[in-house]
Amino acid sequence: MENETRCVGVIGTGNMGRALVKRLIFSGYQVLIGSRQPDDRRKLLNDDVYLNDVEVTSIDQCIERNQIIFVALHMESYQSILVVNTDKFQGKILVDVSNQTKLQQINLSNAEYLSSIVPHAYVIKAFNTVSTFVLENDVAGGSRRVFIAGDNQFARETVSSIARDMGFEPVNIGALRAARKIELYVLSLFPQWKMPLIIAFTVFTLWLLYIIYYNFIDQKNFGWHQIFICVLNKPMCVSAITLLSLTYIPGSLAAIYQIVSGTKYRRFPVLLDRWLLLRKQLGVITFYVALIHSLMSILMMSPSYYKSWFRSTEIIIPQNLTKDLHFSMKTMMTWKGEAASLFGILTIITMSILAVSTAPSIGDTLNWREWRFVQSKLGFLTLVFAVCHVFIMATPHWITRGFVKIFYFFFWIFRLQV
Ligand code: HEM
Known about the structure:
Blueprint: H1 2-6, E1 7-11, H2 15-26, E2 30-35, H3 38-46, E3 55-58, H4 59-65, E4 68-71, H5 78-82, E5 93-96, H6 110-117, E6 122-125, H7 132-136, E7 145-150, H8 153-165, E8 169-174, H9 179-185, H10 194-218, H11 227-231, H12 233-261, H13 270-277, H14 279-299, H15 335-357, H16 360-363, H17 368-394, H18 397-401, H19 406-417
Parallel strand pairs: 1-2, 1-4, 2-3, 4-5, 5-6, 7-8
Antiparallel strand pairs: 6-7
Bound molecules: protoporphyrin IX containing FE.
Subcellular location: Endosome membrane
GO biological process, one term: iron ion transport
Domain Ferric oxidoreductase: 239-385
């Protein structure tokens, strides 16, 4: 049995087939390649220093002599190549490594199709999410997780152990039906980021248009030469606080929903459900927008840009001046500048802890209570710091205008969270 499992077959000599063979050989497996034209293929593989001594045989022989066979073929060829040998597959483990060619809803995965044409074999879906580049290069970037799906537990465990031997991390995702999901996985481009990026872009664009209208058309506050940092910093900072609120509002709405429904077990409305799922990505985007704002603000930190943050220096020059006068100018910050800066720094620090904790390598080390503490309490503290940062800047303007009442609402939401 030991020898049987160390010997595997690979049908197909395309890029994926060859990469698999190399990786299996380096992992200590004895590999037999199965091809429709074994003689031609043998000549071709002779040019590859790593593959020139690997045995190439007919597909028939490859199936007969191996218990575990990797099928590295296009799905369109399954019928013509494999179905003629269907009886020989009795009790064998077939590893399907193929992918879909188009991102579309599918009713049958390639692996399920393979299982339907060779019903006596145990078909396992695996390795389709690993690129040939990662298979061939130990130091290459890219995920080292191998998703494994199949209906037979023994076959799943056998393939998991091979994946482990090959230096990958097997992730058991269940029955063969789950192949429908992972066959599309490699075709999707950051699917969870699309909506949060659209929201962030929309929020930023709306604020940018408003700020350009207000400062250039309505008020003529700035020159166009200030657009790159001084003006752009404004939509950045207001977008940061808008996105931060959009990250934490759904949690509060969910809490209100549960209180009103009187139960924790009722499903949230679809929109709220989807919004809750966007929080992680929205939070990370918010962090970067706030970081850009912080860097831009630090660049401009001078009395020329922020008059109310620095003490003004008054110089009186006597009229009957007969000799040179020397003034040393040391413009210090006002309490407002110092306090607003402090809260800005506190906001960006807590926000960075939140962003770092969303990385899987850090998140995995936290237990559920710690994770909730960071994401919920620390998240809300971040929002409070950001509001203090803005509020300090807005004093005394907001107090005289009565805007302060909005904070009653914040305290109410905060109490709901705690
Ligand atoms: C090192 C950290 C930070 C510094 C030095 C800083 C500094 C500043 C400065 C100088 C302004 C005035 C900008 C202007 O009027 O053009 C400002 C505004 C603002 N900042 Fe920050 N900030 C920091 C971090 C943050 C963070 C993390 C947030 C997160 C949301 C934030 C949110 C805001 C908001 C919303 C405004 C607009 C206030 C208003 O227009 O009334 N800041 N900040």
